[in-house]
Amino acid sequence: MDMPRTDNPSEEYVGDGPTLVEILQEVQRKEGYLPRMTLSRLSRKLDVPLSRLYALATFYRSFSLTPTGRHLISVCLGTACHVRGGQTVSNRLEQLLAVRTGDTTADRRFTLESVRCVGCCSLGPVVRVGNETFARVRQDKLAGILARFQ
Amino acid sequence: MDHATTHILVCAGAGCVASGSLEFAAALREAVREHGLAGEVEVIETGCLGPCAVGPVAVVYPDGVFYQGLKPQDAAEIVEEHLLKGRFVERLVRKAAATGRRVPEMKEIEFFRRQQKTVLRNCGVIDPTRIEEYIARDGYEALARVLFELEPDEVIDVVKRSGLRGRGGAGFSTGLKWQFCRNSPGERKFVLCNADEGDPGAFMDRSVLEGDPHSVIEAMAIAGYAIGSSQGYIYVRAEYPLAVERLGTALQQAKDYGLLGDGILGADFNFDIEIRQGSGAFVCGEETALMRSIEGHRGEPRPRPPFPAQKGLWEMPSLLNNVETYANIPAIILKGPEWFASFGTEKSKGTKVFALAGAVNNTGLVEVPMGTTLEIIVYDVGGGVPDGKDFKAAQIGGPSGGCIPAEHLDVPLDYESVTELGAIMGSGGLIVMDEDTCMVDMARFFLEFVQDESCGKCPPCRIGTKRMLEIVTRICQGEGENGDIEELQRLGGIIKDTALCGLGQSAPNPVLSTIRHFRHEYEAHIKDKYCPSMVCKRLCPAPCQRACPVGVDVPSYNALITAGRFDEALDVIRRDNPFPGVCGRLCNRPCEANCTLGDTDEPVAIRSLKRFLADYERGRWKPTVSAVETTREEKVAIVGAGPAGLTAARDLRLLGYPVTVFEAASQPGGMLRLAVPDFRLPPEVVDREVKLILDTGVALRTNVTVGRDITIDGLRKEGYQAVLIATGAHKAVRPRLAGANGEAACLDAVDFLKEVKLGKRSRIQGDVLVVGCTHSAIDAARTAIRLGCSSVGLVFSRDAEQLPFEKAELQAAEEEGVTVHCLHHATGVLSNNGRVTGLECLRCAPRRPDKTGRIRTEPDAEGKVVIPAQTILFAGSCEADLSVLSGGPALAHSPWNLLSIDPVSSATSEAGIFAAGDATTGGATVIEAIAAGQQAAVAIHRFLRGESGAEPRQPVKPRRRVEMVETGEVPEKFKRPTEAWRPSSERAHDFRESDLTFSEMLAFCEAKRCLRCDMD
After folding, report:
1. Which tens digit of pLDDT belongs to each residue from B354-375?
2. pTM score
3. How many CB pairs under 8 A join A and B?
4. Which fold, A1-67?
5. Where are the domains of chain A?
6. CA atoms within 13 A on the CB side of B351
7. A121, B203: Cβ pair inside 8 Å?
């Protein structure tokens, strides 16, 4: 990566490869979460306190410290989806999967999360499973959608 | 694109992709190839065209025909009809909302006509994954011109002169920002693009990145040249994977073409851009937080100054603009600042992209000149509010913004005017809200959002918004207190003044702005414990109450039953329905069909509980009814003392009007008294409830037939200023059936029932058949059994499943000895020497309702059967007896002899004359008649006060709040009690009521099953 060089010694990653956030993003992408062991290893290797990695991991919504399911369900709770009943969809999914938002099902099939606006406001309520987006989701369609992901 | 003469542009923006546009594009390519058009027709996937709600959408050029709602199976038709035969596919073309006419051409469509596309100039026109197409539309020409013709200061001067202001929210002058950054001393400088479009409800940046990524890249390079930077970063939300992908492709192409990198276009200028993906933190849209995040830290904002132009990314001067701002730059350079400044208002130049969503017909992205009024955007571009509902407000600027109410629809949308109304332009998310949106709930939603997204660094934002959220949540749950509104305003003011960054400073805006424009809604929540929009669950009626045509407060009376306060429970019912005893027996109970418990278990036996109360009252206490004082002068005449007429009489009486009811029969009660058999509705039940109505001071004149003894015009001459016709539908319509009219032994079921009720007939002999699917069929059959006939048969052309009676009732009739002949289509009455001998029928095959919901029976000509009978009763439909109008006036009526009225104001074609009940509907249910009477009373009151126009919709309100009462234990596994009937051997021989009422214990247990949906 072509990063700018700097004379500021406190910023150890300027001009020296990817930033910490990018490293964590890479781990999250590969592992599906940030395993404790990996974070410890990173901390030693990069000579960064573990607390700093933890601070980043808990600040950004897309990092998870616990394993996620094979499929990530993101229920949009942006304004337009809220007005069109996104919350009801979210509640129903919690019921169907028997987990709370943010948790993973026991069989690791799904992780349920809520997001604020995926930018499909005309099509609300919107639910995203993995990379697939479902528009105008009605409660009775949810079971069918889930069945498509094993 | 070399040889193709026709291009089909298929929208591949995220919205249309979610609706399946990629599948359609694949099918279209396949169809094009199958028809051998591969060389002539090219299918191109473009960026967002705008109207996402009707996606997938596509445009066929050169004709410019716009198709919407496309499915893969439509592809072949488009190829065959449009491409081969040259005529557009009508059903896939847009309909003009106003005229209903099909409008094939894109430029004629209202949604596009009003728009002025600068930022979105290439979106939906080019394939965003091919740099050649961008270049073909003058792409990178602006960059070339800047590099070879202009000095950096001249570039900044052009941007300044254009009057462009930041599109991310605050609206700071873009040219000035560039100037500051250029003037800032620093070894290295950075050009940053904010694509962390976190505002829920805004998606224009996403669409630009997906549909025209090169315009942003070109603009950043221009900015780099202007301020003296060689490195750019685009910070994109992780929630926009497609945008990241297209941006990545575009960057690579630009590098390959030498438009990024070292020595761009051979000039002495180096510039490169990298993508940085966000990790899901709204606050990173704030400039200082965004820079911290790019550096790899927690995205927490810091105080300003120093401003990013002085000390930004890695403490070096940095220029940060958002996607939409950048997308304007190439156009400004190419067409000149004067051209750009020709759009918009004095202080807000150019165009603005709005993401139109919510309760509006055309949702999607729209780009209009600054200063376009909200009205034009909502009504002309957006096509108005769907379902004929009223526009209530538009929320603009997301969690940092506020709302603009209906009275400011004419506000020109520019930075200053919007700010003046307490909202902000923000990034341009525009959410239209109709009467179904609760503004308090909306404020709660945004506070919850801010609470969720607050980074926690500064206390005003972290703790202050939490306190505000707690208060608003309390208000939504009905626990609001006096002073809450003032406290919210006080807290809001403090947070605005003291929060560290833009997120916190603007966080109270949604609350303050809804208080400013919709204070009455907050007051309704706090003082009346009522949510006028029916959104806050604890403050709006339960589903059963909403389903009831007269809005009886079911949960409250259930709760009072569990507390043993039966008299109060009846008072709750009587507030809205003067006939609890009647409805406790006859109602078709829409409440139970909507009971929440019905989703998982049997619904609460609401009707039986109502009957229990009415029956329990008898002989135990006297209901509190006293004559109402006459406080008004206008006399009202009501013709017909059925449920509709009497309900209207009572309601008008309670308003203080002198009311006189004219009844042709000797007894009041209408059909309830004249035709419903005693074993289903004992006459004393009707008499009791009618008496309570008369006791309020309603004058009753029986044995007066209006139209014969006195005319309606005569009534008006006597000084009645309003007349309500509620004469019911008593005239049976005999089916057209061979032999049905000639024979003496053919009767109408309604007339038969009346004769029995009036004591004119006490016997019926031989075999009886009842033909027809109305309720009087089953009443007549069960009556005939009791009069001692040899046998009774019910003849229905429908399947047993499709009969409009309750199963229990049909079963009771069968137990009493009635034979049911389903799927028999009567074709003729057979007779011998003037005596009926039987009914000729054709057997029908069972049929399901067709698409229109109508059940068509197709009689089988082979399956002819004859059922022997000596008497045949016809239970067909009934119509109104319009002889009430004899002697004037002539009122408009339908071909079926039903009076025509306005559905809201109950007014007939003549002023001052109203109609309600079966006379306007034919035979309807008793609760519908009561509701019609209620509505007529309101309308007459309005008319007499001289108020014109329709009655505004009155929402159903809970009559009283009854807290949960913990009394007594319900046996485990208690289930809804089944209806208890007297033994059939006994009840088939008398006219005493045939089913039984609940015991106190049963009523208590059943009422306890209520989930109290009104409480949650």
Report:
1. 999 888 888 889 999 999 999 9
2. 0.72
3. 147
4. Arc Repressor Mutant, subunit A (1.10.10)
5. 1-67, 71-147
6. 25
7. yes
